[in-house]
Amino acid sequence: MATEASAWFLEQVGQPLVHRALALPDLKVDDALVEVLACGLCHTDLGYADGSVRPNHALPLVLGHEAVGIVREASDATLVGKPVIVPAVLPCGRCALCQSGRGNACTAQKMPGNDIHGGFATHMIVPAAPLVRLDAAPPGTDLRLLSVVADAVSTAWQATLRAQVRPGDAVVVIGAGGVGAFVTQIAKALDAQVICCDVRDDKLAQVAAVGADLTINVRGKNPRDVRKEVHGAFASWGVPSLNWRIFECSGTPDGQTLAFTLLARAATLVQVGFSAKPVELRFSNLMAFDATVHGTWGCPPEAYPDVLKLIWQGKIQLAPFCELAPMSQLNQALTDMAAHNLEKRMILDPRA
Length: 352
Ligand SMILES: [Zn+2]
Ligand SMILES: [Zn+2]
Description:
Blueprint: E1 6-10, E2 18-21, E3 31-40, H1 43-50, E4 61-62, E5 67-74, E6 83-86, H2 96-99, E7 123-127, E8 132-133, H3 152-162, E9 170-174, H4 179-189, E10 193-198, H5 201-209, E11 214-217, H6 223-236, E12 244-248, H7 253-261, E13 268-271, H8 285-289, E14 292-295, H9 304-312, E15 322-326, H10 330-338, E16 345-349
Parallel strand pairs: 9-10, 9-12, 10-11, 12-13, 13-14, 15-16
Antiparallel strand pairs: 1-2, 1-4, 3-5, 3-7, 3-16, 5-6, 6-8
The structure holds zinc ion (ZN) (2 copies).
Residues 91-92, 94-95, 97-98, 103, 106, 108 line the site of one zinc ion (ZN).
């Protein structure tokens, strides 16, 4: 293959990524060669880079699981030349979980930048079948922004599917940055009313600007006091607790404790964020409340077209939450992320 390819490799944890040539093996029949237009930087990438999360693939590994690109080679000729999202979860498509619409839980799934080389590269080789086509993007769409759909937006979408958010529901989102901002916008697009909780006023201002009905800065507050505030608002909106939907997106023990504290009779909680730390909960509250708690992981590729429609309709805005930069600034972006200095989700362009 004559294509000149390069990538940013994690060679040693705790060290900067190394930019060097990427060897592209001959394509297998089920794979596609994708020329990367952009790849989003996720907090999980920082975890791999600093050694706090171990990738499944041995080092060196190309990180990045939020890629959008153009298919350059594939067995399916109709794919070639087409823009696609490379989902962060690439299910096998054949197992019992995949066959029952639970491909996001497929035990044979591949994740770019974890199981296989990822999107911090000029090119990637990925399974062709789960690629999500972007043919329906309105003219003038900056396809690079759609990279965040591969994880942040689609994960938020799947979480709202899991919770069965309906018009008129009362939603509370804990953790207003990243995935939480997209859960907020999706819930609003589904005609729910939304409260966002965070410990940062700037994050709360961002979600207020895209439709959150109420924001609460929970820094230093007792979860029981927040419970009074949230339940009071839901009650004032006249929504019965059966239709309360709680999304824990902060991935912090405090956020998880708060989410559990907000449970009520027949309410639903979805755990979206990740924390390696345990929390102490009175689990029997689930029994007492007849409540439902779901986990959610990624999003099956077949669920993408519906959330893309909301983006085409302008009901989910990406630009206010994203910042484009050349991929050559990737190490700086990781440093900034580690120092909590990133205001927005960074999208890295290997051609810039
Ligand atoms: Zn991610
Ligand atoms: Zn499968």
